[in-house]
Amino acid sequence: MAERIEADGATVLSKLRLVPVDVTWRFHAGATATVISSTAVILGELLIHGQDIARATSHDWRIDELDAALIISGTRPLMDHWLDPEGRQMLPGILETHHPVDIVESMFRRDPPASPALAALVTHIAPI
Q: Measured between alpha carbons, how far is 38 from 24 in angstroms, rounded to an integer?
């Protein structure tokens, strides 16, 4: 899997760079995505599944704070579609008070939430 990601990743990124930032398309849960939000989703998937592979093979894997912040800022326009109404109300406070890596790992349900507030937010992720 890692070899395939390594081989195909550059191709995917080169294709994404060709997409104008103002082009939109339908995405999960009725959201409208752009190349920016889609690239942030791809980054999140790569980092989380990279973490899955590392854990399965007894390797260390750390998601970088800047990468997590990119995921959050890029997917922020999509989050309103991924959260139910109560989750949408909770999100701004979570974004202001929690570490980006904790948010990403909790939203992807990989590690236990770092706080009760983050645990509560995760319960409001709508099924996609």
A: 10
Residue 99 in contact with residue 118, Cβ under 8 Å?
A: no
* Phi-psi map region of 111: left, alpha, beta (phi>0 left; psi -120 to 50 alpha): beta
The string of DSSP codes covering 75-94 is HHHHHHHHB-HHHHHHHHHH
d(CA 44, CA 50) in angstroms, rounded, equals 10
DSSP state of 110: -
Beta bridge pairs of residue 26 = 32
Q: Tell me the three state secondary structure of residue 105.
A: helix
The pLDDT averaged over each successive group of 10 residues in the chain (128 residues) is 77 88 90 94 90 92 94 93 93 94 90 90 83
